[in-house]
């Protein structure tokens, strides 16, 4: 039967649901919790109504007809089919609008621009000292409301970090605003929710929720040019420039100032590469450079399958030093 | 009655009888369903395990796009039309639909267009932008290749066929009812057909307008959806979803109609609350046009706007609830026996109610912020569509199978297929709700193991194969040869509706004689009626002229008005469909010259079709239909079916025009200044002159209609009317030209040009009709008493003049009052 | 022979008009809010007030039609009356009943449409 199956799923899924990095029910953001507060009553109400309708259907089918049935039938059409749904949907409408109002009225402490590209995320923090550029990883202070300014230049994307809140589309020619208020620290998953072409499935990001002090320190570090230790790796740097990486990528403090691809100034401080795809590690970085289009079909970055092993070592070391 | 015999041998394809066209339509739609179902299995197989490489990313994107497209446009909507063409005439005691050749034309358009769109996947050229084709992804030929053109043009072509069918069904329900079937006695099925066909008429044209704009942007670089040139991607979403949401109800309502028709027979009781069901059909039809933005809740529109659409999305649940409870009350009153159709109907109830409940959830805006574009929505939409449409259609297949084939389906296989389908469906789609809650977005070709979605996905995949097995069992039972089975009884279910007063074996003329109806359930409440019908004791049991004839009645009370002669088989409809298909297909590949040539063939074929149709002067002024009923054999003006068809066509046409007007006003709202600063609108005086010339042409036509008794005057008016019409269009285009408007520069220029183009194309059509009327007059196919073609032409021009005036007001006058002039 | 046209009888119009009033009210509300938010983007109060006025007008119009429909139907409730007979009076009653039900449904829908306009102070 279907009811027990649903409960079973709810139990098993619930375990994963509360822990999942991409789950609506992870409760990592105030906005997500507002929506979660809607979800459970909705679920219980839906199961109750569905069961009631089914029970009535079975009774209606089994019962021997009586003279009074037509009168009962009319009453049921009016009350069960008309009045009850009207009350339920009016209640749903008002509850939904109240939640919407609650979500809209949060003053923000920080502004972050997220600009979607095919198929990665440019992230720009607004600070009193100017803009700080980053990519594919969004760091947010715990307990503070952040205003996200969502834009896109190529096609429509949609910003979604389910654990923190709902989604909002990024539409060329428009700037959409959304607030997130993280309430649990940790690394949460995010992804593009609107089909945006070839590599849509692999356009992900991470939201890292930090204690406000740690966040402040991190933001200062992120605004600095690349680490001196990396810049001293002359061979890796010159390979990076010579192989054409610099045409698309920026590493502040070097001549690399391409804007087509993600800013790599502090690549090694991020958790993932390839727009949230692979965990940052030496091996994954090599795989990404040599098999880019296998790992992420459709990606704009060319593969370097024929790069000599020594060069690959050097360039990987350079990148891993960009902390 | 021999007139109704379809041709034999290979010439059978030229048949136009609704019994054949309906069957072909149905089989073709099910073939596309099978195709799209296989695509679904490919999708499920790919998603069964994480990081799967069973399908490539490129191919997967084509597969999911084509799955949605084919299920929606090639199965869900056509199946409504197919079933209606097959059973509506017989249910109305009519011999056929009023325009049999139009049915045939629609079917061939559908078949050609469907094969074109689906076949593209064999050449790795299928559309890959998702079935809602959002620009700017879809407007960039560099990112989405020829597949998108195939989608836009192929589907526009099929939509034309759908609208043709809708027109035919509306006229069929309004004018071809049996004598005495007043509007309060009309079967519920007919109400639903009327309502749904009406919805098609208002829902499809905006999409056709959108298709036109998007294809103009793709092929010629016109600026409609490009934000850098004053366009807006959201315009497409509005136009698409103004179609797309009513579309859901266009799919759902006819299926409820099928259940409402079967249930009285299966539970041996009339539907409780007949007028409540009619209320909910009409109520849903209107409310469903106020839901479209709920597909756009996450586009960043103001909260208050979202609120309006949330309100309508919730409100539509009220009439839907009434509908379902009317059926439940009928079950309560009746004495139902568990049969396979009832089993499927019960499955429909269980599944659809669940989908409806998740539907009112996603209609809550903040909830949709999470659910939108996730697998939760995938689950929701399959619950509503499969529960609301597929289960009822399968019930109908089992129920009407004896009607179409004179054989019955196996009860045992039916039960097997039901339980496999029901179990498979729930195993597939119930877990998907949770997959969505765990954050899986739709339209992803793969996912990583670390996401934690694989267990649920594997369950769904297993379920999908069980579901497919159930459908295979049903398909086997339907298709297996049943030669040795004895013919089914004429009315195996003891049903109350007229289609079961049939001859066994089935005959090509539909009903044997057309009875007078005086009750809602004639075969129950008018004892002996079936036998009288079969003995040919009622009207029109034969035609002395060996013509195909049917009785036309009035809309409210179904009083007989006249006898309509309908045309027989002909290849000209196939030629028309094929050449129109060629126009669209050639345009896809930018073979403009060949497309124009194909267009010329289409024009000639259509004119020949009309010329050789059954509209000429009748052999006698009246026909004796039997039992003392003598009816005229000719009608023109607003009593005739042709006039109504033209009227309804032009309503749909005006809706498409309204889509273009919407685009203009939408841009105006967006930009504040539209035309943009620095652009001067076309000179109002010149536009006025052009519109006045068009009005002059219209005036001459009206004069011709009024002067029909003086042949020479009418001839002259018809012959000269094209001159001011052509001049008027030239002046309008000149106004846009001399204002220096370049459609590739800015959305304003493009919108003005597309409106001008629209009027120009309609005037071209209007000129053809004027000349056609002139030729009919000249050939003496028309005279003072027989002027149907001319009056239809005048009706067309009435609408055209209103559109021209609206265009003038919009382009010429609106900028003056809205302060858009620099 | 002349037949009464559907326009002359008027019974079809009372069926179509209540949902049309809902549609016009809905479009007007949407339009007012969209233009207001595109131009002003500030306080919604004037827009909200005009929507409320429109709502009252729409409800008055629907109730007027409801009265006509009720007269045709022969009262507001006539339990068990199916209007399934073969007379002109039955047809009038039937369409009256459908129109009356549509009035109730669309009045509810109009009121639901008005709810958002009193719930949001800003765009």
Automatic annotation (TrEMBL), chain A:
Pfam short name (any one): Cytochrom_C
Family: Belongs to the cytochrome c oxidase subunit 2 family.
The species this protein was found in: Albidovulum marisflavi
Its biological purpose: Subunits I and II form the functional core of the enzyme complex. Electrons originating in cytochrome c are transferred via heme a and Cu(A) to the binuclear center formed by heme a3 and Cu(B).
Superkingdom, taxonomy of origin: Bacteria
InterPro entries for this protein: CcO_II (IPR045187), CcO_II-like_C (IPR002429), Copper_CuA (IPR001505), Cupredoxin (IPR008972), Cyt_c-like_dom (IPR009056), Cyt_c-like_dom_sf (IPR036909), Cyt_c_oxidase_su2 (IPR014222)
Protein name per Swiss-Prot or TrEMBL: Cytochrome aa3 subunit 2
Domain Cytochrome c residues, every copy: 231-323
Membrane topology classification: Multi-pass membrane protein
PROSITE patterns: COX2, COX2_CUA, CYTC, PROKAR_LIPOPROTEIN
Chain segments annotated as transmembrane: 38-61, 73-98
Signal peptide positions on this chain: none
Family matches, as PANTHER family: CYTOCHROME C OXIDASE SUBUNIT 2, CYTOCHROME C OXIDASE, SUBUNIT II
Keyword Manganese: no
Primary location recorded for the protein, binned into one broad class: membrane
Reactions accelerated catalytically: 4 Fe(II)-[cytochrome c] + O2 + 8 H(+)(in) = 4 Fe(III)-[cytochrome c] + 2 H2O + 4 H(+)(out)
Keywords: Copper, Electron transport, Heme, Iron, Membrane, Metal-binding, Respiratory chain, Transmembrane, Transmembrane helix, Transport
Domain called Cytochrome oxidase subunit II copper A binding: residue spans: 107-221
Transmembrane found in the keyword field: yes
UniProtKB/TrEMBL annotation, chain C:
High-level lineage: Bacteria, Pseudomonadati, Pseudomonadota, Alphaproteobacteria, Rhodobacterales
Keywords associated with the record: Membrane, Transmembrane, Transmembrane helix
Keyword Transmembrane: yes
TM helices/strands, residue ranges: 12-36, 48-73, 94-115
Protein name: Transmembrane protein
């Amino acid at each position: 039967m279907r009811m027990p199956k649903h409960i079973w799923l709810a139990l098993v899924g619930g375990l994963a649901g509360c822990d999942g990095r991409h789950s609506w029910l992870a409760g990592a953001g105030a906005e997500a919790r507002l929506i979660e507060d809607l979800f459970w009553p909705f679920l219980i109400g839906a199961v109750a109504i569905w069961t009631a309708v089914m029970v009535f259907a079975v009774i209606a089918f089994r019962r021997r007809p009586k003279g009074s049935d037509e009168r009962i039938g009319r009453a049921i059409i009016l009350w069960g089919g008309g009045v009850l749904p009207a009350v339920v949907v009016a209640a749903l409408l008002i509850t939904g609008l109240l939640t919407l109002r609650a979500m809209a009225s949060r003053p923000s402490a920080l502004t972050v621009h997220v600009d979607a590209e095919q198929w990665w995320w440019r992230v720009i923090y607004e600070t009193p000292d100017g803009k700080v550029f980053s990519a594919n990883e969004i760091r947010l202070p715990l307990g503070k409301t952040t205003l996200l300014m969502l834009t896109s230049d190529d096609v429509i994307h949609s910003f979604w970090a389910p654990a923190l809140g709902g989604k909002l589309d990024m539409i060329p020619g428009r700037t959409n605003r959304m607030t997130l208020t993280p309430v649990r620290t940790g690394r949460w998953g995010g992804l593009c929710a609107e089909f945006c072409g070839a590599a849509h499935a692999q356009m992900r990001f991470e939201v890292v929720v930090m204690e406000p002090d740690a966040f402040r320190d991190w933001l200062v570090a992120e605004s600095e040019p690349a680490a001196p230790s990396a810049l001293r790796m002359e061979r890796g740097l010159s390979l990076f420039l010579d192989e054409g990486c610099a045409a698309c990528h920026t590493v502040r403090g070097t001549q690399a100032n391409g804007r087509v691809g993600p800013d790599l100034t502090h690549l090694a401080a991020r958790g993932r590469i390839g727009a949230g795809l692979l965990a940052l590690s030496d091996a994954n970085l090599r795989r990404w450079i040599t098999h880019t289009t296998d790992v992420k079909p459709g990606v704009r970055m060319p593969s370097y399958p024929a790069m000599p092993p020594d060069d690959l070592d050097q360039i990987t070391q350079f990148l891993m030093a960009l902390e | 009655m021999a007139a109704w015999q379809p041709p034999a041998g290979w010439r059978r394809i030229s048949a136009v009888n609704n019994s054949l066209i309906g069957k072909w339509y149905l089989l073709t739609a099910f073939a596309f369903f099978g195709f799209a179902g296989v695509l679904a299995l490919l999708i499920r197989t790919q998603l069964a395990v994480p990081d799967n490489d069973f399908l490539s990313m490129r191919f997967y994107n084509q597969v999911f796009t084509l799955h949605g497209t084919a299920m929606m446009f090639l199965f869900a909507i056509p199946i409504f039309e197919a079933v209606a063409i097959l059973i509506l005439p017989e249910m109305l005691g009519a011999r056929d639909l009023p325009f049999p050749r139009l049915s045939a034309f629609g079917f061939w358009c559908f078949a050609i267009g469907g094969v074109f769109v689906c076949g593209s996947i064999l050449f790795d050229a299928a559309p890959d932008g998702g079935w809602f084709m959002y620009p700017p992804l879809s407007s960039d030929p560099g990112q989405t290749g020829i597949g998108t053109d195939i989608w836009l043009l192929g589907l526009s072509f099929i939509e034309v066929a759908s609208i043709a069918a809708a027109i035919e069904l509306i006229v069929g329900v309004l004018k071809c009812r049996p004598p005495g079937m007043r509007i309060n006695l009309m079967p519920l099925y007919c109400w639903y057909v009327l309502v749904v066909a009406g919805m098609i008429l208002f829902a499809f044209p905006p999409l056709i307008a959108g298709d036109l704009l998007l294809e103009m942007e793709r092929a010629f670089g016109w600026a409609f959806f490009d934000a850098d040139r004053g366009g807006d991607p959201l315009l497409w979403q509005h136009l698409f979803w103004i179609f797309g949401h009513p579309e859901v109800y266009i799919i759902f309502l006819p299926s409820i109609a099928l259940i409402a028709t079967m249930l009285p027979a299966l539970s041996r009781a009339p539907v409780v609350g007949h007028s409540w069901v009619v209320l909910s059909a009409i109520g849903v039809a209107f409310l469903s046009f106020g839901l479209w933005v709920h597909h756009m809740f996450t586009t960043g529109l103001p909260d208050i706007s979202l609120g309006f659409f949330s309100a309508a999305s919730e409100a539509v649940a009220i009439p839907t609830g009434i509908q379902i409870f009317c059926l439940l009350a009928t079950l309560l009153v009746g004495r139902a026996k568990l049969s396979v159709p009832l089993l499927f109907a019960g499955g429909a109830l269980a599944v659809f109610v669940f989908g409806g409940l998740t539907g009112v959830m996603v209609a809550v805006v903040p909830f949709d912020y999470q659910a939108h574009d996730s697998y939760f929505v995938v689950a929701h939409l399959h619950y509503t569509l499969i529960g609301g449409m597929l289960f009822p259609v399968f019930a109908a297949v089992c129920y009407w199978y004896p009607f179409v084939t004179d054989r019955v389906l196996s009860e045992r296989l039916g039960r097997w297929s039901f339980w496999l389908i029901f179990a498979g469906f729930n195993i597939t789609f119930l877990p998907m709700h949770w997959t969505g809650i765990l954050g899986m977005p739709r339209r992803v070709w793969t996912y990583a193991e670390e996401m934690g979605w694989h267990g649920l996905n594997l369950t769904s995949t297993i379920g999908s194969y069980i579901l497919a097995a159930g459908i295979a069992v049903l398909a086997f039972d339907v298709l297996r040869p049943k030669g040795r089975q004895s013919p089914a009884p004429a009315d195996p279910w003891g049903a109350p509706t007229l289609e079961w007063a049939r001859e066994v074996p089935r005959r090509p003329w539909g009903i044997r004689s057309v009875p007078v109806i005086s009750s809602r359930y004639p075969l129950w409440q008018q004892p002996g009626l079936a036998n009288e019908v079969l003995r040919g004791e009622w009207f029109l049991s034969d035609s002395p002229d060996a013509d195909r004839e049917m009785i036309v009645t009035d809309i409210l009370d179904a009083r007989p008005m006249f006898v309509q002669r309908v045309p027989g088989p002909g290849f000209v409809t196939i030629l028309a469909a094929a050449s129109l298909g060629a126009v669209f297909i050639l345009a896809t590949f930018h073979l403009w010259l060949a497309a124009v040539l194909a267009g010329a063939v289409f024009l000639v074929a259509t004119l020949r079709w009309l010329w050789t149709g059954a509209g000429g002067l009748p052999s006698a002024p009246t026909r004796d239909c039997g039992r003392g009923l003598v009816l005229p054999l000719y009608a023109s003006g607003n009593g005739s079916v042709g006039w109504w068809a033209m009227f309804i066509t032009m309503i749909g046409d005006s809706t498409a025009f309204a889509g273009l007007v919407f685009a203009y006003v939408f841009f105006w709202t967006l930009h504040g200044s539209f035309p943009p600063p620095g652009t001067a609108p076309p000179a109002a005086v010149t536009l006025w002159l052009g519109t006045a010339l068009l009005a002059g042409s219209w005036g001459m036509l009206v004069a011709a209609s009024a002067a029909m008794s003086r042949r020479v005057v009418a001839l002259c008016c018809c012959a000269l009317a094209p001159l001011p019409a052509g001049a008027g269009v030239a002046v309008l285009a000149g106004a846009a030209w001399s204002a220096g408007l370049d459609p590739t520069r800015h959305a304003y220029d493009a919108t003005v040009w597309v409106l001008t183009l629209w009027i120009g194309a309609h005037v071209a059509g209007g000129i053809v009709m004027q000349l056609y009327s002139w030729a009919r007059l000249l050939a003496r196919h028309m005279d003072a008493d027989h002027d149907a073609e001319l009056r239809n032409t005048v009706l067309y021009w009435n609408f055209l003049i209103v559109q021209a005036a609206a265009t003038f007001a919009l382009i010429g006058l609106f900028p003056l009052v809205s302060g858009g002039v620099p | 022979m002349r037949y009464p046209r559907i326009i002359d009888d008027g019974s079809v119009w009372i069926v179509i008009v209540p949902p049309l009033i809902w549609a016009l009210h809905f479009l007007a509300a949407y339009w007012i809010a969209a233009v207001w938010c595109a131009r002003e983007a500030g306080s919604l109060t004037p827009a909200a007030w005009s929507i409320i006025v429109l709502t009252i007008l729409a409800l008055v119009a629907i109730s007027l039609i409801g009265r006509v429909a009720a007269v045709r139907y022969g009262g507001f409730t006539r339990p068990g009356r199916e209007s399934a007979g073969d007379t002109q009076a039955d047809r009038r009653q039937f369409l009256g009943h459908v129109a009356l039900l549509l009035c109730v449904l669309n009045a509810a829908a109009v009121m639901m449409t008005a709810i958002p306009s009193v719930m949001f102070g800003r765009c």
